[in-house]
Amino acid sequence: MNFELIITETRGRVGLITLNRPKALNALNDQVMDEIGAALDGFEADDGIGAIVITGSEKAFAAGADIGAMAEFSYMDAYKGDYITRNWERVKTCRKPIIAAVAGFALGGGCELAMMCDIIIAADSARFGQPEVKLGILPGAGGTQRLPRAVGKAKAMDLCLTARFMDAAEAEKAGLVSRVVPADKLVDEALAAAETIAGFSLPVVMMIKESVNRAFESSLNEGLLFERRVFHSAFALKDQKEGMAAFVEKRKPEFGHD
Ligand code: CO8
């Protein structure tokens, strides 16, 4: 795959996407999002890939949607062009787990892109924020919806209404990120976590992702019912037989990913 604004690599069973628009602090324009979508298409179609990492640079995961590209938009440009859903939703629909490895700024659409992923691992340099209010707009890719689900109403309101940034320690305490690591270890730590995930049964990993996401879409009872159905279906997998046989035989399982 040839891209201009992202770099894609395969590391073992992990697909790595590095945003590569350094002069604009990885600002997310249509081309970047199209390229991320195409990279995800490729990784999803590849049976050799079990998990994906999206990262940016040391200075910025992404400093937001591209302000210059939006500045002269009319309402009809935004509405008719289906601004946001057209290519951003692809991240949400990816069925393989995605880890966001965040160093530096993750602001506006950058924070929202990270929140569309399944796990956020932050460098100690990471700074999260939804500063759209300063531009006369509001978050448009989930900031007012995913952030309160992650950190609660008080902190989400604080970030969206005051535009202040949250550092990595605060983000971890608030529950937005799963772990904080030294900046120079960020990508290695994220790749190691992704490789661990990719070593498990791929269908089970996908079922877990789907089930945890269900928790945000349904009542507890509906979610529990969904989990039960998916749990039962896991017994149709060869990987379940292998996983349990390996435990009983005190050996490492060799998952065949089906
Ligand atoms: N869009 C376009 N260019 C950007 C952006 C951006 N979001 N952020 C930074 N840049 C550019 C700057 O214009 C500058 O370019 P140039 O060198 O040509 O002047 C370059 O990146 C470096 O930036 P700075 O010189 O400003 O670097 P500093 O270290 O001084 O400051 C900051 C870094 C604090 C990150 C600062 O650049 C900043 O405040 N950036 C804007 C942050 C922001 O407001 N983000 C939200 C954008 S709006 C948004 O994301 C809405 C999402 C809605 C859904 C998306 C739908 C598609």
TrEMBL record:
InterPro entries: ClpP/crotonase-like_dom_sf (IPR029045), Enoyl-CoA_hyd/isom_CS (IPR018376), Enoyl-CoA_hydra/iso (IPR001753), Enoyl-CoA_hydra_C (IPR014748)
Gene3D superfamilies linked: 2-enoyl-CoA Hydratase, Chain A, domain 1, Lyase 2-enoyl-coa Hydratase, Chain A, domain 2
Spans traversing the lipid bilayer: none
Catalytic activity: a 4-saturated-(3S)-3-hydroxyacyl-CoA = a (3E)-enoyl-CoA + H2O; a (3S)-3-hydroxyacyl-CoA = a (2E)-enoyl-CoA + H2O
Catalytic class of the enzyme: lyase
EC number: 4.2.1.17
The keyword Lyase is assigned to this record: yes
Pfam families xref list: ECH_1
A molecular function GO annotation: 3-hydroxyacyl-CoA dehydratase activity
Keyword terms: Fatty acid metabolism, Lipid metabolism, Lyase
Record GO biological process: fatty acid beta-oxidation
Family to which the UniProt record says this protein belongs: Belongs to the enoyl-CoA hydratase/isomerase family.
Functional description taken from the UniProt entry: Could possibly oxidize fatty acids using specific components.
Name of the protein in its database record: enoyl-CoA hydratase
Source organism of the structure: Thauera linaloolentis (strain DSM 12138 / JCM 21573 / CCUG 41526 / CIP 105981 / IAM 15112 / NBRC 102519 / 47Lol)
Source taxonomy: Bacteria, Pseudomonadati, Pseudomonadota, Betaproteobacteria, Rhodocyclales
